[in-house]
User: Fold these one by one.
Assistant:
Number 1:
Amino acid sequence: MATVPSLTFGLTGSAPEDPTPVLYGMKGAIFWVLGFSAVHAVMALVFGLALGPITLAGFAAGLVLLATANHLILRGKSPEAAMRALPLMHASLLVYAAAIIAGAVL
């Protein structure tokens, strides 16, 4: 019987019980997330200005969630802290989607 190896995509250690990022290390991963969050905020502002005030207000709420997630990551500086911040990052995407739809409809 053939077995299929588990995939880690190079994002974590070799064992599931070792969630340490191996590509950049924890400090590098924090800077990676913060850097792209800053780029994301600038592009959200540009995109939001093009779509109108309703969308811009929704993007502002999403950016607050994203800033809170980044704060959790910076404060915790661990993979566990990043996992606690992950739902906030996903919630910000839902807020963005709702804001874009509201801006188009209203």
Number 2:
Amino acid sequence: MDPSSPGMSIGDLLYQGEKYLVSRGIEEPSLNSKILLSHALGLEGDDLLSKLNGAAKAESEEAFGGGQDVTASGATLDLKQALFTWGKIPAAIRVARSGRMLAEDELRLYRQTAVRLVTGAFFDVLLAREIDPEVRGGLLLHAKLLYAIGDEKEGVPLLSEAISKGEGGAEALYTYINWMERLGRRQEGTDFIEKLAAEFPDPPDDLLGAMGWLAFLSGDYPKAASKWEKIADQAEAGRYSLYLARIHKNTGELQKAENWSKVGMGSGSEGDRRLAALELADIYTARGRVSAAVGVLEDILKQNPEDFEALNAIGLIEMGKENPKKAGDYFRKATETGEARPEGWNNLGLVLRASGDHKGAEEKYKKALAADPNFAPALKNLAILYDKYMGRFSEAIALYENYLKIRPTDEEAQKWLKASQRQAGGGQ
């Protein structure tokens, strides 16, 4: 069955997606098929079928202008009808972005099929019936759909026109900047934004945000901070709070960093608020307020007892307090969360080495390197273990050399490499 067929139903899509995923050896194909399709619809995965099955026939008919024989079954409800009924106009944009970012080849093909299907539905149904370029917002929506399918020839001029007419605010500006980044035309984007800003004695908040983002992308973090901190609207400024916290932390302005982290904890998505809380805990630790840091991290763990970053961070704090048993407990929990992350194994190795369990430490460092063969801390720690504690100099030399390919300016490691080479007879 052709996925772009107007008669392709939700049930058909789920079935075809599951068959494809099975053919590519993907685990839990039924679940992943639902997840992929839920992206296309802009729905929560667990909510997909319940929303489809709960769709009122009258609502669907009213949205379509009446006349269609629409049932509430997920197996017969047409995708275009579902999109139209629930007003999921941004869905094509979200799924297209997700498809571009997705790294796994075996999933990308089906995601691209979903992109074609959804964007096709928009152009066939929504653009024809909903988008009037003369209506405020019409230009931006049309341009964003062109962005979703990568049509820069028509889309970039259309988006520039929308911005020049004052449509879309920050959303239009960020779409434009991201498009210029994708095309490798950052300077063109910068020139366009700065030309717009020059028309105002005091640039409005959306332009300040865009100018700050361009500076950030270029690595000029002080300039980015100076633009973002001029934004008058606190909700708009909150979009950049995490970046501002990190910029100020890296420049040693810890009070400013703390303030912006707290702003971030009160704005944005749940994921953004979690990241701001982790940042605040790190800043508290840097300021010596470890009890406050642990309190923030424990609040994160109340929401998710298997949060890797929170468990690992408390473990590091306990190490700093010279509580190796507590530290080991947290690192061990971090390694049991199911995330293939090297940090927990590496830190657990440090605890075991400090307790004299060199074989146990070796095992944990090797697990860290199994998760990431280029994880520099584990390379260095295993080299130190072989060099200083186990007398396995040849193996230490190879690890030091690999580590120094990643961190070539580490003078301490350079010194220890030479010492190991002398211990091994200078043979490597």
Number 3:
Amino acid sequence: MTAKAVKALLLGAALSTASFTAVTPVMAQTTQDGVYRNEVAADRAFPLLKGFLGLPVAERDAINLNYVLRIKNGNPKDAQILLKQGGQSTRLSILADGRISPLPTLAQMNSGARIEVTGPSTMSVAMRLRVYATAKPAKTMPTAPLAKAVDQTNRVARKVGGVMALAIPRQDRVFFDGAGNGTVTLSDGSTRALPKTPRNDVVPAGTPFFVPADFKNATSVTFDNVPRRIIVSDQVK
């Protein structure tokens, strides 16, 4: 659902059952004088973020939550996102890949901060959640931190997903965006080619990925290029 389709003041968030990494917030929309305007509480604009930040660091240190703004019928450069708190407004940046930065802090969400999105009246907006591993991208990487990121993602989903946690599929792999070809090295020293995505989805077609459960004796992965980002998700649809 796009925010443009909302015809009433619905304050909430709809979590897609297709993937833990697909989240669309539902915001209160008004259009006036050719300006699109959506406003919602910060903890609803960024689903799961409040619960995530409320966990002990040791339970979430292998992953970060990132929120990507998807805009239809408009240019992202024409959109503006404001964090409103205590009578003050702070403009948030929309990075080249659509990610919003910085994200609200736990203290800001607890104090009632709100998010406002404005732009041309023809624009429609949705937010997508992406889970990134915090392991530093490199041409050769140990697999233990990657397996930890997958495990933490599922544990976090169960702890902060509420009733929707039952509908979230198990996240079982990491994608290495921009890495080119990849191989996995096993404990006996042998290597195998990493599989690649068959089509565009969370990442472009041809992106290598690693499923820890498929290579339980893996020690490292190696790539043609340093990955731009490492995304935790489930299988390509």
